Batch of 4 targets.
Target 1
Amino acid sequence: MTDIIFFDLDGPILDGKMKHYMCYSEIIKKLNGTPIDIDRYWLMKKNKNSVNEILQLSNLENENAIENFKRKWISNIKKKETLNLDVLKKDIMKILLLLQSEYELILVTRRNNCENLVWQLKREKIHNYFNRIFCCPRSDYASKYEAIKHIKFKNAIFIGDTEEDGETAKILGIPFVGILNGLRAKETLSADWYFNDVFEISDFSLLFN
């Protein structure tokens, strides 16, 4: 039985900082708010500040405007023109190619539009690296764990950057590799291993121990 590496997409494989910030700032401007700068925005996201806290600093405190922002965000973040702002992480294609020969690679990601997810993976030319792809819409109650709990394995690890990724690994009883150059700060994750990015991992086999 081949060992498995479960990958989250946004954070470990794709850099979504610009996507998130541009989606946020464009909506704020349309609602006559004032966007905070990208560094402050991303720091607040990593530290788990609420959307409402970010919007208050963006001069958007009207309740109707806040609800309008949230609706527009859900709609805009999944559009192809927004997804075009994602950038592949350093050396990730080379890494996936090497891993593909030794492990079963399974992608497990939270996306609202699964059709556009497939489009993006093909556009970035990374879809063929994965043996299986699981798209978990954010509006769906089912967790990442529910999506992959049926998969049989002898050894596996989960590489991700969110609390849900860590919780999924914990329930499965496998090591969680936390990527820090993603959506959350180290203090918010409880990982067995920490790396700033995937390219820093020199020997994946050691992570299974």
Note: DSSP finds nine helices and eight strands in the chain.
Target 2
Amino acid sequence: MIQLEALQNNDLYGDDGGIRIAYTFASPSNRTHTGPVERFIHLIKQPLYRPLIGFQQASLGPMLILGAHAQVKVDLVDADGGEQGYVWSLSRQVAAPYAGCWMTDGVMLG
């Protein structure tokens, strides 16, 4: 997933570029809840999501697809060697300009 690679390499992009890349894949619904990119950056840096930044390794489970919705489990080893699991919720967009694209609706502990 592009979002994971971007978050893993966030520091390489400068100015939280990896988090900004991940935000571009947030669905319009997700953006309604998280707000503008600067608020999203602040959210990702909170303890709940901090393990996503600069993690060492990630493994993805099978994607479960139900119509226009999908979930995928992501287990990762964070920068400090700790283990954390998340569930990515996605939806296929129907409205332009994202029609047909799978975008992230949310990421929860899992």
Note: Residues 2-109 form a domain with the Nuclear Transport Factor 2; Chain: A, fold (CATH 3.10.450.100).
Target 3
Amino acid sequence: MSERTVSVLVAGPSGAERASRAAQLLRLHTDAGWVAMRENVLARALRTFRPSAPVRGRHELGDFFVSSAVVVDQLRRAVEAVPFAAPDTITCVTGDGEELREVTIEIVAGYGRPLLRLAGQVHTAAHACLRQLLGALAPAGERVHSHVHIGHITADPRLL
């Protein structure tokens, strides 16, 4: 790829027109590969840094806070341990006092697997993970609603 330098002088009333024309000319030379990859690149950039909300946990020494990014990472690892399931999207919602209120886990499921049983295994793994991570403030009864959403089914074991 050759390097080009475009000089735009903004002076007088025609400066905005020149800048607009320069932008149009630059858009004409967009690499086709960039157009194909831009959504993926933008999605990754948005995931790179995200402020993380605190999630309250409790153990014998008192309350503590865990980053929601850590909670999601630990849930992802727990779901990855379930055979024929792979985590896709994991969302945590906190309520008053930063206590975990809701967890939604979207998974990719192996083709031909009993989906209700698989969802139950993911649900069990998620609850065990949250109990270990958050202690006494982990899900108990109806305190945390855990939803497992099967968003994709695949026969390709590389995706699991």
Note: Residues 1-13 have pLDDT under 50 and may be disordered.
Target 4
Amino acid sequence: MFRKNKLAMIVSEFLGTGLLTIIVLSVKNSQLGLPYFVAAAAGLIVLLLTLALAGISGAIFNPAITIGLWTVRKIKTLQALSYIAVQFLGAAVAWWLFSYLTKVHGIPNSSEYSTRLLVAEALGTFIFAFVWAGAMYQRFGLYAKAIAIGGGLTAGVLAASLVTGAGNLNPAVALGVRSFGWGTTLLGPIIGAIIGYNLYNLLFVKTELAEIAESKDEKAKTSKVNPTLTFSEVANEVEATSKSLDSKTKVASVRKNVAKNTTAKKAAPAKKPVAKKAPAKKSAVKKRNPNAV
């Protein structure tokens, strides 16, 4: 049985992928169907959806990006499989809704195998995933992360659009716009995402040897949380750190109270001992009895 937060994550990915597909379909079927406008629209909607849903599911909305995150151990296997399933489902529902509203039943895009199309999709997704990895590993804030991801998608779509029919960078969206191809719009983005994430991880994420080589002063300035940890590991480390801080605070408080009491005792004036009064001595001279002879 799903918990509420897990269900929210799945619904978030379903809605996000569906909305992204609807926007791409709308722009491609309008008078603004040029690659520049498609790229700008896709980047803008991803930016907005990241702001709205990043705190719930991570705002992935892309099966290729999901697989890329899985290869660098940023997402668990079962979670990745559930995300991929609902992402494709969201794109399919978006296509059905679009065709129902507009009576448009197809977009003239070729889904046949083409090496140029495969390379273009891989190149565009590589750019997108590489920028995403930078935002993730450098722990950008929400607004900076949203801008980086939206801008990375726009740049990737523009690079891939050099080849006619390319520029989806998303197998789910490719399915939704009816330009899905197993050897092109599916395989290309997956290859690009895997290379993008793993190359950034290999080149720019600090390794254990690099951490050992740091000086003590540099280590003191860096965060204790390793940027290569998964979300659950980060949460566990934060919890352990907070418990450690609580225990240290309690110990410091006890020591402070003990020191305060000790100082107060030393400062108090010593009490003079009260001398006991000696019992009165009986007179050695006996009183004479007047009746005595």
Note: Residues 135 and 148 are 7 Å apart (CA to CA).
